[in-house]
Design brief:
single chain, 401 residues, CBS-domain, 3 domains
């Protein structure tokens, strides 16, 4: 699932890069580990500088690992939302899933392959450095960087989702059987067992050896188990929803708020006469770029003042929350979590103009109706939702007053 509360770091190869605050903890941890490893190779100041640079270099290696995934994915027609650096490394947030097993396999393998290559390059650099400074901090840092990259490559190839090795297992089983659901389920279950195993090893390390480094294994195991469990749930939802598209469940002609409106204009508009609690915010060309809920007006993040605009209160619409009518509902469920009465998926036409809307209620109802074997029909869905979503005939996306 997407990681919230990130800081944008720009773009690399056209792919957005962001960092979660927990990435700072990772840099600090790597710096401490490397400084301990380098102790005695030089003065304290030199060791600290080398440790910081080494930790940042490792973060760059993690970014290269994820960039490799993302670049290969985009070249095979898979949209990539962004790469996020966080506590446990990096994550590529894909807007689509690979449509065939071969693409799935290539995207999975290129990450560990990149880490292994970086490890080899670092070892070669360490060999050259050893000629001039065999016991110096530069050589030791390069050896450490090479070792960690190789370990990262090997660890990521463990055969359980969401690790790259789990993706490889999924791709191979999918290619052999043609059954994507069974392949996803198998990889996710292996990931659950793998997570429990790592957590168990961490607990045993603490109890038997008194080494609290086992806490890291426990955290990693918990993350793997939770992520694998999520993938198992999503795989089941994809199976239930089948080929249901966003166009099948979206509400057409949705009501919307113009970002240029003032809050006073919003409160005098026809939007207050609807039963809707969350609205997309559009620009002058009808393209959605933010979202606004009544709750945002009740708890504004900016001081109330005359002339306060809707754009000042609205929350940015995440790229993952912008969909096309032909997108599969299962893919949307996999990539975004909608909070009731706060978030929406904005559906756009080829020109990027707002053409439909999907709320958390719509997604939940589509999943429930599919699980019950009931047809997913827009009119039936709206009646069952009690008007929670915009209905056909509502205020057009031009947001006329």
């Amino acid at each position: 699932m997407p990681i919230r509360s990130t800081i944008s770091l720009g773009r690399v190869a056209g792919i957005r890069i962001a960092a979660h605050w927990s990435a700072g903890i990772t840099v600090g941890l790597f710096t401490w580990i490397l400084a301990s490893y380098l102790r005695g190779t030089a003065s304290t100041t030199v060791v600290l500088v080398a440790a910081i640079l080494g930790a940042l270099a490792l973060i760059a290696c993690l970014l290269a690992h994820e960039l490799a995934h993302s670049i290969v994915a985009t070249r095979h027609g898979v949209r990539v939302e962004r790469i996020v650096l966080w506590l446990l490394g990096g994550a590529s947030e894909l807007a689509d899933e690979p449509r065939d097993a071969r693409t799935d396999l290539r995207v999975a393998l290129v990450g560990p392959g990149t880490s292994l290559l970086l490890g080899v390059v670092a070892y070669a650099a360490a060999a050259v450095s050893a000629v001039f400074s065999p016991g110096g901090p530069v050589t030791a840092t390069l050896v450490w960087l090479a070792t960690v990259n190789v370990v990262l490559a090997v660890f990521n190839m463990l055969p359980g989702a969401p690790l790259d090795g789990g993706r490889v297992v999924r791709a191979l089983l999918w290619r052999r059987s043609g059954d994507r659901l069974r392949a996803e389920t198998t990889a996710a279950r292996i990931g659950q067992y793998l997570g429990m195993g790592l957590a168990g090893i961490g607990i045993a390390e603490i109890i038997a050896l008194g080494d609290f480094g086992g806490l890291w294994l426990m955290l990693l195991g918990w993350f793997l188990y939770t992520a694998a469990n999520t993938e198992l749930t999503v795989a089941g939802l994809r199976h239930q929803l089948g080929d249901t598209t966003i166009g099948d469940i979206m509400a057409p002609a949705p009501v919307a708020a113009a970002g240029a409106w003032t809050v006073d204009e919003l409160l005098r508009s026809s939007l207050v006469c609807t039963r809707h609690r969350v609205f997309p915010v559009i620009d002058a060309d009808g393209r959605p770029y933010a979202v606004l809920a009544w709750a945002d007006l009740l708890h504004p993040r900016t001081p109330a003042r005359p002339g306060l605009r809707v754009a000042d209160l609205a929350r940015p619409l995440a790229p993952a929350a912008i969909a096309r009518p032909q997108d599969l509902v299962g893919d949307i469920v996999a990539r975004i979590v909608l909070r009731p009465d706060l978030d929406v998926v904005a559906v756009v036409d080829p020109s990027g103009r707002l053409t439909g809307l999907v709320t958390a209620t719509d997604l939940a109802l589509a999943c429930n109706r599919s699980a019950l074997g009931l047809p997913i029909d827009a009119a039936t869905r709206f009646a069952a939702a009690g008007g929670d979503s915009p209905a056909p005939g509502g205020m057009p996306a031009s947001a006329q007053m």
